[in-house]
Amino acid sequence: MESMPSIELPLLFTLGSRAVIDELHRQLAARGYDDLRPAHGFAFQRIAQGGATGNELAAFLGMTKQAASQMIEYLEQRGYVARQPNPDDRRGKIIALTERGWDSLRESAAILGAIEAEWAALLGSERLAELRADLRRLVAATAGGTLPRQLRPVW
Amino acid sequence: MESMPSIELPLLFTLGSRAVIDELHRQLAARGYDDLRPAHGFAFQRIAQGGATGNELAAFLGMTKQAASQMIEYLEQRGYVARQPNPDDRRGKIIALTERGWDSLRESAAILGAIEAEWAALLGSERLAELRADLRRLVAATAGGTLPRQLRPVW
DNA sequence: GGGATATAGTCAAGGGAGTTGACTATGCGC
DNA sequence: GCGCATAGTCAACTCCCTTGACTATATCCC
Question: I need a labelling partner for B35 at 20 to 30 A (CA). Which of A33, A90, A107, B65 fits?
Fold first, then answer.
């Protein structure tokens, strides 16, 4: 990679992203959540905001509603979410987290918090805060208006 | 995301990674390289180091040799790489970049360089250098010994 | 009010990119 | 030189996502 220095920064982002996500799911699996994939975590982030319809979730994840529906079924069968009738619209259903779903989110937060604490110990917390602030600005500038959308990799 | 602050940093990594890669491939497509996927860029990084055998590439990308072989065929058909007989081992073949392959790498470098220049303008170059240094340390600490391996997402 | 149109969700079929398994040809250790 | 290891290919299968077609309910607008 010596001959192509400009590729390093994107590579660091990618490696960092993968390293955190891999470590998170390694630890989640060790705690009994071995049936959760990274994409589910992104879905949970949306569902945790007061529930979501299938179409909302599909839009958030940047996939078709059929694919989202299939994922919801996977999560429902394993007890992470429940499909509830939508009182305002009899066509629709509201996806909500079950207790197990909430538990998994709390575990994730604890694990990510521990990783972040390690990082703070490594860099110092003021340096980590700077890093966070810089990343926010870069992402905001590069991702533009598409900030909270299209979390999925689409490799 | 207000209720779960510790997810922000991994999210920023992921969004940053995606934003750069998406922007890179948007621009590559506009310049005639619309048949290149992000995974190919990672493969090119390895192939550019004096060529690679199929197995080396598979190991680098963290996939089976069958999958790597399939990807090589895709790239060969589109003129980015060539399979050459290996003079040292008649079982093996050496994958090398063609002129078109090298051209695409140079384009990528230019595009990534431009993005990085934008970032330097946004943050200031000394701050960007700090960011890079911090990221290196975090990635090295978190990814551990597996630094140059397993670049693929494995979502 | 009621018909045209839009939207939520499901069913079914297909595709892309990876996997496992089995095989051939060549290299290397003893 | 025999036996095992390794490079690459062919074939079948899986997973997760897509496109297309359909039903049921909601909304628009005359």
Answer: B65
